[in-house]
Amino acid sequence: MKQKPSIAFVAASWVALFTGMLGFIIGLWNATMQLNEKGYYFTILMYGLFAAVSVQKCVRDRLEGIPVTDIYYGISWVSMLLTLILLIVGLWNATLLPSEKGFYAFAFLLSIFGAIAVQKNTRDAQAAGKEPENIREEK
């Protein structure tokens, strides 16, 4: 039977996710950039979170022998890489201070890490709660 993730790691994962997301969103809210720029960065954040969870799920499913089509696996990885490229290009061309660019980059990366860790914890907790097939048959 698999072990559940510790409460400390689960809490740290959620804190990382919400700290990164809230920091990024509060930064956008307070930014002096145009609304279309704010929408661009917000969309990259949401797309990045979805892509990160998709990549984690695909990788985990394949490790556990759950079928994942090659096309979905590939789209998940391309999506994750695309969000990083779009963020880098956007920040490179933005008229922001270098410290602001760094803030958005690290808030984004913290959010992605948090999303992956939360997804992993969810899967680990589910796996730990399931009873192995051979034990059920013996009862």
UniProtKB/TrEMBL annotation:
Keyword Repeat: no
Transmembrane segments: 7-28, 40-59, 71-95, 101-118
Residue ranges occupied by any YiaAB two helix domain in the UniProt entry: 9-61, 72-124
Keyword vocabulary terms for this entry: Membrane, Transmembrane, Transmembrane helix
InterPro entries referenced in this protein's UniProt entry, alphabetically: YiaA-like (IPR038972), YiaAB (IPR008024)
Any single Gene Ontology cellular-component annotation: plasma membrane
Domain of life: Bacteria
UniProt-listed GO biological process terms: DNA damage response
Entry protein name: Uncharacterized membrane protein YiaA
Species classification: Bacteria, Pseudomonadati, Bacteroidota, Chitinophagia, Chitinophagales
